[in-house]
Design brief:
Layout: E1 2-3, E2 16-17, H1 20-31, H2 37-55, H3 60-90, H4 93-104
Antiparallel strand pairs: 1-2
Amino acid sequence: MTQEYGQPGAPARMPREMNGLAVAAFVLAIVGWCSPLGILGLILGYVAKGQIVRRNNSGEGLARAAIILGWIAIAAFILILVFGIAGGVFANWDEWRQDWNEKYN
């Protein structure tokens, strides 16, 4: 995929090639919403951003979006994990308290 730049009648510039890693990072960041795959999208987003700067590719917006979505996915995954553990621990709190009172009182 290439991207054309320039005004009509102006000398044609070389089209910039789309960075494939930026596209892959963006897809993984979306697919990895609330899952560990978001971490992979985040890592690939940072790698793609470096490649874009070195190679003068296009796709900087996709890499930036993958980085943002990757951080959001990690935060959401951690929150789901924390609330899941807390919900599981406190789900039978009354039952555990009664068992404790029967054993030790």
